[in-house]
Amino acid sequence: MKRKAKAMGAAQSSSSRITSPGSAASSSASNGSSLPVPLEILEEIFMKIPPDHVVLNCRLVCHQWKEVADSESLWRERCRRERYHISDASKAPKDWRLFYFLCRKKRNLLKNPRGEQQMKGWQVLENGGDQWKVEDVMVPHPDVAVRKNFVTSFDMCRKAQLIDLVKEGYSTSFMDDFQPDIRISDWYAPRWDCGSMYEISVELLNHKRKPIKTFTPKTVLFQQWNDQKWNQITHVFQNYGPGVRYICFTHGGKDTQFWAGWYGIRVTDSCVEICPAGAT
């Protein structure tokens, strides 16, 4: 009942502007009855209400409100107004409401991408030399909010995360039918006084965790006495076919001069995003 009252209150000011004292609806109300608001007008009212309230509150008021709150036209129009455009017109989503919320809540699916929580969230696959370490950035990152990075040592260091798409809210039907763009990115940098190497591999996996698509570029090598600037690598998976259920993100490296300590490649601000409206 609280939700119903909240929803009625949210739309009261808007609906009061629809009718005037001389209208048929007002006349009916004065006789103790009321007429339903036309669906197209109710839809326009819902456009001005926060989307979470439309789903959690408005659709519980009555059958008419539920019909509009669940309508394809409402969410397709919200997508249009908020510029969530599909990149491939041949892949129109079956569920525009789901498409809208996934666009609106696009996020990095990797946990602890900058090392602010040390190694939490990462599975260490190789921990060579003096092992992985988290340090402050040596040179400013293009994003001033990035203050930490992971550092490799004198033997191979590699870490990974496995993303379960269903647990992250991406249904099997959405992934199979719509196949949204999957954008990955990573930042890496060498030390100026030591050579190093950097590797990355990202796999789209099926329900048995077998690869469907893989991005594995060539190993990047840095010579000693370099400019130690930050470099970004990006890739967008498109048209990868049905069956993707997991994403495995793996990266790492080492120094190439076998120096004790942490002179190897530095990595930070890694990212995996599902982009229903297309990657940017």
Automatic annotation (TrEMBL):
GO biological process, any: ERAD pathway
Q: Where is the F-box domain?
A: 31-78
**Which GO CC annotations does the UniProt entry carry?**
cytoplasm; SCF ubiquitin ligase complex
State the residue spans of region: Disordered.
Answer: 1-33
Kindly list the residue ranges recorded as spanning the membrane. none
- What does the record list as coiled-coil region(s)? none
Biased segments, Low complexity type: 13-33
What InterPro entries does the record tag this protein with? F-box-assoc_dom (IPR007397), F-box-like_dom_sf (IPR036047), F-box_dom (IPR001810), F-box_only (IPR039752), Galactose-bd-like_sf (IPR008979)
Keywords (A to Z) from UniProt: Ubl conjugation pathway
Quote the SMART domains the UniProt record gives: FBA, FBOX
Provide the FBA domain boundaries: 99-276
Q: Which Gene3D superfamilies match?
A: 1.20.1280.50, Galactose-binding domain-like
List the GO molecular function terms. ubiquitin protein ligase activity
Q: What is this protein called?
A: F-box only protein 6-like
State the organism's lineage. Eukaryota, Metazoa, Chordata, Craniata, Vertebrata
